[in-house]
Amino acid sequence: MVDKKIPRSSENDYTDEMAKVRRDFIQQQTGANLEHTGKYSIGTDVLPGNIENFIGVVQMPVGVAGPVTIDGEHAQGDFFVPLATTEGTLVASYSRGMRLLNECGGVKTTVVEGFMQRAPAFIFESAREARDFGQWIDDHFLSIKEVAETTTSVGKLEKIQQWSISRFRYLRFNFTTGDAAGQNMVGKATLAACEWIIANAPFSCRYLLSGNMDTDKKHSHLNMLHSRGKRVIAEIMIKDEVLQKIMKVSTKQFADGCVMANTGAMMASAAYNGPHSANGIASLFIATGQDEANVVESHAGLLSHQLMENGDLYLSVTLPSLIVATFGGGTGLPTQNECLQMLGCVGKGKANKFAEIVAATVLAGDISLKSAVISGHWVSSHDQLGRNR
């Protein structure tokens, strides 16, 4: 029988030599030509913790949109935004939206709050015990907090939300996590807390570290209400004459389009009622080394509008579960770190700044695409620049 086990080295699996051994193995097994996959400039010594069974790099084009003028509490000034995508027209569209934002005075951004959760589920003999356990948790919060925070120098336990279902008690631990996204950080901290709870609580129970109410890598309405990652808002007051000059639509037409889109999104039970928050978020995530699976949580939100009496249009994007990091994960990889450098988001205290830039980018893209749909330029722009060519 042919051995189909992927080659690994017990001494050092992160070398150019081992990557080539695996490429040769895959080429032999599948017939695929991995010539381009094997061409990369990063050192394999930076890869431990980011990848296993390394064979090379998937190269993806990166474009730059902007500049976009941001008036945030953390992001202030003009920013050139790197977007990794294979979709033609995308970068041009975001740049067009950013021009509109700039000519209206820039976009105002605000980070409202930020938490990362782990949600263990405790199982009891009866619903009454589960209820009483919840009161015990409230009474001993400070002790639980102290134990949880022994596992991390950054994470801080801010609150524990609770729900009783049947004979289960679901706890949702909410941590702040500094510049890290923090899923692994809060998992370790919550495990320590749960072990302390089992050892000290006057109840007979067992638990699962995740009862799935943390909704990790999943969209949920709970996140819309209570925040996961950063809750960040980007807002702008759009002048009618500027919108007509750049986008060829009036603020009245744009507002009417929002009403129709809101109705459609409501009927579809969509996670986002704007045109395409996931496009900008995914492109920025890939460029800057974010966890790409978090797009499913991060893209959810609300595009809100109000047509003013003078014809101006207030427009805002609220992203209640934007999960971003400027430390850890893929952010330290060479090309991803270079893209973070472009944004001035390398170093301590930069996660909120990055979140504001993401929100501003989403708003720019939504304005541009919605305007293209309303004006009838959506298909023609793809004919000119995109995959329709």
Automatic annotation (TrEMBL):
One of its GO terms (molecular function) is hydroxymethylglutaryl-CoA reductase (NADPH) activity. One of its GO terms (biological process) is isoprenoid biosynthetic process. SUPFAM superfamilies: NAD-binding domain of HMG-CoA reductase, Substrate-binding domain of HMG-CoA reductase. Keywords: NADP, Oxidoreductase. PROSITE patterns: HMG_COA_REDUCTASE_4. The keyword Oxidoreductase applies. Coiled coil: none annotated. It is an enzyme of class 1 (oxidoreductase). CDD domains: HMG-CoA_reductase_classI (cd00643). Its EC number is 1.1.1.34. Belongs to the HMG-CoA reductase family. This is hydroxymethylglutaryl-CoA reductase (NADPH). It comes from Thalassotalea euphylliae. The lineage of its organism: Bacteria, Pseudomonadati, Pseudomonadota, Gammaproteobacteria, Alteromonadales.
